[in-house]
Amino acid sequence: MAESAANSRPVPGPPGFVILPGMNGAATNQRSTSGPAARPIRLLHLEDSEPDHALAMAYLQRAGLVLDARRIETRGEFEGAIAEPWDVVLSDYHLPGFTGLDALALLRERGAALPFILVSGQIGEDTAVEAMRNGAADYLLKNNLARLAPAVEHAIAAAETQRARQRADRELQASQRRLSELAQHLQTSVEAERHAIAREIHDDVGGSLTALKFELDWMRRHAPTAELQQRAASALETVSYAIEASQRIMQNLRPAILEQGLVAALQWMCSAFEKRTGIACEFRADPARVAETMRLPGGVPLVAYRTAQEALTNVSKHAQATRVVLDLSLTGGVLSLEVSDNGRGLTGADLGKARSFGIRGLHERASTVGGWVDLSSGAGGTSLILSVPLEEAGAEADEGEAAAAPRPAQEALR
After folding, report:
1. Please, which residues bridge with residue 374 across strands?
2. Quick one: which of 265, 273, 326 has its CA closest to 296?
3. What is the distance between the alpha carbons of residues 372 and 386, in angstroms, rounded to a whole number?
């Protein structure tokens, strides 16, 4: 719509303000030098009528708002303008070649998180509802602009709150990601340190004890007196106990039995648990899929072993159970290990203990191989399930980890 000469004259506003029209109907609000400085609100106005634009600006000025406003009419102008920083968009509904709803859709397609207020003289209730459903902050009628300034202020404040919430969410997610990465790094570092300690015990302590056992046995067999033979036999018993202790420590630090496969390791763990605690422990696995567990991706067998170890430790300490079942399955490319008991179950207080890191540690440990842990508990007992999606068929265990593992302790400590 062509602008008349009358529209080019300054439009009176509240005391201390004046609207100065510029190119394409752009308007800048200026305070008098006596008032305090304020950052103007950058307002983009989609409006094909200059009088209607001036009237809307006058209403906003009377409310004391400081504005840096630009009026545009066409879709092309709007597409170019939304690349600039704005605080709010006011839009008429009927525009040359498109509508306010089209402008709102374009704004959302561009990902611009700007508050959008629809201001029109001809808008039905259905259109207003659709605009609000599509993300408009508000809608007003041109014959009732008394609510325009509060609507603009509220829309800007709501948008800023939303942006602050999104920033906080992003920072929280980044913090959680860093904490998860740190926890995973700590889990990996702990396993590496256990590996190194087990190797040192195996190579140094284990070798020395074995050599000492041979020497003591030779001394016992060649002792000239019965007293020396008895002393040598006593020393042999002590050394044998030390060898067994070192084997047990190495097994806890780095289970060498895992080299025989996850199934063998879990069978051994279940048997040892039952002997140590007196709690009946049953291990179940699909015989047809046992061979596939020998070709698990690197790290998965150790994660499954540690999960079962932690679960059985919790059962022995807290569950008051009389029976435990370990169930290993490999279905649909997902390895599942379930440890269930018939104990008293877990309460919210049990899971919320300030220094209880066992279950939380299992979640982090599972995430190191892309898995997760599900825990359910009730009056009938507790069930802990580790699920690990595996790579495509043919994935092999990490050769570097297998090569770095110490030889079975029994070889050097027999």
Report:
1. 385
2. 265
3. 6
DSSP three-state, residue 142 = coil
Separation of alpha carbons 100 and 86, rounded Å:
17
Q: What token pair was written down for 356?
A: 């209880």
- In the chain the domains, ranked by start, together with CATH numbers, are 5-146 (3.40.50.2300), 257-407 (3.30.565.10)
Backbone angles phi, psi at 175, to 5 degrees: -65, -45
- Cβ neighbours, 10 Å, residue 78: 20
pTM over 0.70: no
d(CA 123, CA 382): 60
Collect all residues with Cβ–Cβ distance below 8 Å to 282 and sequence separation of at least 6.
Answer: 270, 323, 324, 325, 326
The Cα 285–Cα 288 span in angstroms is 9
> Are the CB atoms for 82 and 114 separated by under 8 Å?
yes
Based on its alpha-carbon atoms, the radius of gyration of the chain, rounded to whole angstroms, reads 38
Contact 259, 402 (CB under 8 A): yes
**Residues 198 and 257: beta-carbon distance below 8 Å:** no
- pLDDT single digits (tens) 380-389: 889 999 999 9
CB atoms within 10 A of CB 34: 7
- Cβ count near 133 (within 10 Å): 8
3-state secondary structure of 356: coil
Q: At what angle do helices 50-62 and 148-200 cross, to 10 degrees?
A: 80
Using alpha carbons, list the distances in angstroms from residue 195 to 226, 252, 406.
43, 10, 8
At 278 the pLDDT is 93
Tokens of 267: 């069978």
User: Which pLDDT does position 18 carry in this prediction?
Assistant: 38
The pLDDT of residue 357? 60
Smallest CA-to-CA distance from 389 within 365, 372, 374 is with 372
CA dihedral for 101, 103, 108, 112, sign (positive or negative): negative
For residue 11, what are the β-bridge partners? 19
Q: Enumerate residue ranges in the chain where pLDDT < 70.
A: 1-38, 288, 290-291, 347-358, 391-414
- Residue 48 to residue 75: CA distance in whole angstroms: 11
- Which residue from 400, 373, 396 is spatially nearest to 304, judged by alpha carbons? 373
pLDDT, position 15: 37
